[in-house]
Amino acid sequence: MSKLKVGIIVFLGTNCEQDTKRACDFFGWDSEFIWQDEKIEKNYDLIFIPGGFSYGDHVSSGRIAKLSPAVKSLPVGKSLIVGICNGFQVLCEAKLLPGALIDNQNIKFISKVSELNFQNEIINLPIAHHQGNYTCENIDKTQVLMTYKNNENGSDLSIAGIYDKQNKIIGMMPHPERAIYEELGLTDGRKVFKFVKNQI
Amino acid sequence: MSKTRYNGLISKNEFEYIKNELGREPSDFELHLFSATYSEHCSYKHSKELLKLLPKKEAIFTDENAGGIEVGEHAVLFKMESHNHPCAVEPFNGAATGIGGIVRDVLAMNARPIALCNSLKFGADKRIIKGVVDGISVYGNSIGVPTISTEVLLDDCFTENPLVNVTAIGLAKKSDILTSNTAKSGLKLMLVGSATMRDGMGGAAFASKELSDEKAEDKLSIQIANPFEKKKLIEACLDIFSKKLVVSCQDCGAAGILSSTSEVAFKSGCGVEIDLNKIHIGDKSIRDFEIMLSETQERMLFVVEESKIAEIESIIIKYHLESSIIGDTIGDEKYVVKKGDEIKADLPSWLLVTPPATELNFEHNDVCLKNPSYVKDGNCPEIYEQYDHTVGTRTQYQPAENPQFNSLWIHEENCFLGVYTFCAVIQNNAFDEVYDAILNASKLLKEKGFQPAGLTNCLNFANPEIPPTMHEFRESISAIKQACDELKIPVCSGNVSFYNESSSSRIKNTPTFTIIGIKYSA
Predict the structure, then answer these.
(1) Is B463 helix (H, G, I), strand (E, B) or coil?
(2) Domains of chain A
């Protein structure tokens, strides 16, 4: 089987692109960065929108990134699109996923390892965000991908990650790319990456 | 002209010294330059001689922006710095720009910042605690550098004078390291990053005096943080440096353009000629000397060959940054500032960075202002949970185990760095307390399997002119020297912060440290 082709979008202010690429390398996937100003014309199996503070979160997180040539040219339906943290915020802002991410209930940045319900088991992934409080009217429960066991940020239905209706777009607040290596003690991110691959 | 026109800028002694060396009276513009470079903050005039006693032999780049240790083909460059005075006045921006400043120190050497540590000393003022923690959280998280080691102590002596010390750790390939001493004549000075504004005016001089009650006025001295501009600057610099387009680099920290250009000139043994009209300015009301002294954040000084400018500019535009060619390096070891054809300053480079010797008072005064109040661990989870400690995917431990300690995976060299941040609050015997703190820290690293390799420090002291400050400072230096000699580790870098006192209170003198150890994977 040929290697998985992965694009990782980088905006000014993105800061998880290297971690995401390193995780792709770990799985032997063929990944490259896509700069914010590029129109996406190549065929990718998978496109990541990684975490960070795109455009400094100016106006609102994800608000300016959704206007970039890269996001406007996302091959929706062709490539699997996965937004992590700020990437999830971008996808919600762009209305590619339902709902919105607002300030955490305690109005503080939360950085910790969170216990999550994912695919009928509990996994541990780092969370690190200020606006991860997911809110949505009438979310279709079949679209829920991942929930917080302890709902650290106050999300509706404890939602930590969702799909779109066609299962071609995924958004999640936790950082699976930071939980890959035995050396660092957390490896449950592998389960998320394997799941993502199976969605392609 | 008034005989006391130097009042509030430099001392009479310094004025006479300059006049004598120049053979003329310095101009008003030149006086403002001296007021910054002769400040305690820039010149280290009360500490310079004693700091020479610290063991540095095993460290690398100890005369640069950040010193470090070698790890295989890589260098780990790290430095601790204080931002105490700004945090007392404006906690959020004070703390945030403290992170910004220390990150620039490792960045200037072409090291990617990979971790931050913070050592915080607070009193009862909750506004200060909240502001400082927010500042570190917002800035560090936004630029994508994990904060991995946090020490918090509470004591009444820090209520009006909080201590905010931050360490940045950077990783560079040894062969790619840039320094500030490699300029030569015939090159261009390029200022990269934010347009120069009036913020942070006189910050260096501000950090060199006791806090007055006029904090409203001091607010003018505070730099404004912009983590998004910094993140762009980090990526642009590393992109430009990776293409070997820059000869020498210095960050614009205290005393901004003035100190960055004068340091490059002095260290490299050349001169500089700057044209004020060429500098990109963000505030047209700025006065000429303010352009030189402004501490507008998120700026770097590059020394470049003219032929490389176009390529550098194209990268700067990609990252939505600004730049300007502000002058030249010249053969004479002179520091010249022009405004068009008008000469504003014409000084020997060495004179600008070499103040007259300062008399030190080592008197030991038993009747000191210290209260026998206790020092206790601060309330930590609420603080460290606001710091992204996992970005970068190198952090081994959750802070809950021991917030002061963590381990960083250097996968490039298949090893781990043990990082521990600690302090010695001097209560009775400076030597014993500092010595014990370092030995205990080393013991902790060894117990966790790390071989201590080097440390950085930040020496927070009260007014050096009033006993027993200098006595305790000298005792602390002796203790650091003895402890490091015994452990066979160098002091890789450091910073001194004097004048941590206000009209009604002074701090207990508090040396702060980050020690680093190495463990190679089995």
Answers:
(1) coil
(2) 5-199 (3.40.50.880)
Instruction: Please identify, among B320, B353, B386, the residue that sits at the C-terminal boundary of a domain.
Output: B353
* pLDDT value at residue B375: 59
Q: Say if residue B184 is in the same domain as residue B317.
A: yes
CB of A146 closer than 8 Å to CB of A172: yes
The verdict on B424 and B494 lying in the same domain is: yes
Do residue B167 and residue B188 come from a single domain? no
A85: annotated active-site residue: yes
The pLDDT confidence band at residue B212, using thresholds 50, 70 and 90, is low
To the nearest 10°, the Cα dihedral for B228, B233, B238, B240? 140
- Of residues B121, B65, B85, the one with CA closest to residue B498: B85
Q: Which of B32, B46, B83, B85 is catalytic?
A: B83
Phi-psi region of B10 (alpha: psi -120 to 50; beta: other; left: phi over 0): beta
Q: Alpha-carbon distance B170 to B493, whole Å?
A: 13
CATH of the domain at B182: 3.90.650.10
Q: Does residue B472 belong to any structural domain of this protein?
A: yes
Known catalytic membership, residue B389: no
Phi and psi, residue B513, nearest 5°: -140, 150
In the annotation, is B85 catalytic? no
What is the torsional sign of CA B130, B91, A128, B116? negative
The string of pLDDT tens digits covering residues B43-85 is: 899 999 999 999 998 888 888 888 999 999 999 999 999 999 9
- Its pTM stands at 0.95
Using the beta-carbon criterion (under 8 Å), do A183 and B409 form an inter-chain contact? yes
Q: Mark whether B133 and B224 lie in a shared domain.
A: no
Residue B230 sits in which domain range?
12-44+178-353
Q: Is the domain of B318 the same as that of B441?
A: no
Select from A22, A108, A111 the Cβ nearest to the Cβ of B390.
A111
